[in-house]
Amino acid sequence: MQTLPIRLPPGQDLRQALEAAVRSQNCRAAFVLSGIGSLSTAGLRFAGADQPQRLVGDSEILSLSGTIAFDGQHSSSHLHMALSTATGAVLGGHVAAGCIVRTTAEVLLALLPEWEFAREPDAVTGYDELVVRRLLDHQK
User: Fold this and answer.
1) Which domain of life is it from (predicted)?
2) CA distances from 30 to 55, 56, 60, 67, 126 (A)
3) Tens digits of per-residue pLDDT, 6-27?
């Protein structure tokens, strides 16, 4: 495992920036170990919901975790986040596109260069689920 600490400045899309960071390392599998910061707008898909909720206004990232996969052409993420609103209400769910950094996001990624993550249909859940594969030495 290799760690990659990053700081995202204002205006960046959290999900897109994390996926780009993993791609830039030529890595196919990563975990978000820790994440804190602030957002000006957020998209969270709550448990069991089909569509994300758009949250506009200042919020604090209390925790961020999940996986990031890159298959050589496309990135995919499964990220969860807990947010605190300006009134102190805490919400959490699946991170959707459009989570825009307000002042900063400080994230620690764990890069797994010997592994590959993919998302493939799972007949039991009905969703694309994580598939973990060890990369052969000649594929690295």
Assistant:
1) Bacteria
2) 27, 29, 23, 6, 24
3) 999 999 999 999 999 999 999 9
Nearest to 78 by CA among 63, 93, 100: 93
Alpha carbons 65 and 28: distance in angstroms, whole number: 17
Q: DSSP for 40-83? A: EEEEEE-TT-SSPEEEEEEEEEEEEEEEEEE-SS-EEEEEEEEE
Domain 2-139: which CATH class? alpha beta
Q: What are phi and psi of 20, to 5 degrees?
A: -65, -40
DSSP state of 86: T
3-class DSSP state of 138: helix
pLDDT digits (tens, 9 = 90+) for 92-123: 999 999 999 999 999 999 999 999 999 999 99
Per-residue tokens: 13: 């899309």
How are beta strands 75-85 and 128-134 bridged, if at all? unpaired
Could you tell me which residues come within 8 angstroms of residue 66 by beta carbon, excluding any fewer than 6 positions away? 31, 32, 77, 78, 79, 80, 95
